[in-house]
Design a protein that fits this description.
elongated, single chain, mainly alpha, about 180 residues, 9 helices, two-stranded antiparallel ribbon
């Protein structure tokens, strides 16, 4: 490795490790979903004390609200650590956010509902960035040997083409063969 060789993308600098990790997954979608799950799960069990007066938001569906909140937090973590299931996690977060409206005090006083809805939409619409195209300069820099011979180039180019079989009378007349339409 020389001083002219560019650093590998797989091993980021220590300062950029979190940034590289964050850019390879739906980070903001997971964060919004987790933030949305907290008020949805907490508000039916929380109480606020104002002097001698206790204000409780408890409902009969408190267990359902807690389950929805825990599931939203779990889906947010899934978006971070399993980005391949981001579409499922996003759709599930949207459905749970909609279910939280009647179950959990209008979806955690609408705040949790909105955060979970936005997080689910971000997750369902997120797509990984395309890999950077390899230029000629970097391809030549990574090649260890001398210049490629023409024979090797022809061999490599023809190696990717599958062999074509010629049609025979038996293959044309065969019922159910690869060329039959019915």
């Amino acid at each position: 490795m020389s001083a002219e060789t560019l650093a590998s993308r797989e091993v980021p600098k220590k300062e950029n490790r979190f940034k590289a990790w964050r850019q390879t997954r739906p980070f903001w979608a997971g964060l919004f979903t987790i933030i949305g799950g907290v008020p949805i799960g907490y508000l039916p069990y929380g109480d606020m004390r104002l002097g001698n007066v206790t204000l409780t938001m408890a409902t009969t569906a408190g267990a359902g609200a807690l389950i929805i909140g825990v599931l939203l937090i779990t889906l947010g973590l899934t978006m971070w650590f399993q980005p391949l299931v981001r579409v499922f996690a996003g759709v599930a977060a949207i459905v749970l956010a909609l279910v939280s409206i009647p179950v959990s005090n209008f979806g955690g006083l609408v705040v949790g509902f909105l955060f979970a809805l936005i997080g689910g939409a971000l997750s369902a619409s997120w797509a990984p960035a395309p890999e950077p195209e390899e230029t000629e300069d970097t391809a030549e820099a990574e090649y260890d040997g001398g210049p490629a011979h023409e024979d090797e180039t022809e061999t490599v180019m023809t190696a990717g083409v599958p062999d074509q079989r010629e049609a025979t009378e038996t293959s044309i007349d065969a019922k159910g063969g690869r060329n039959s339409a019915g």
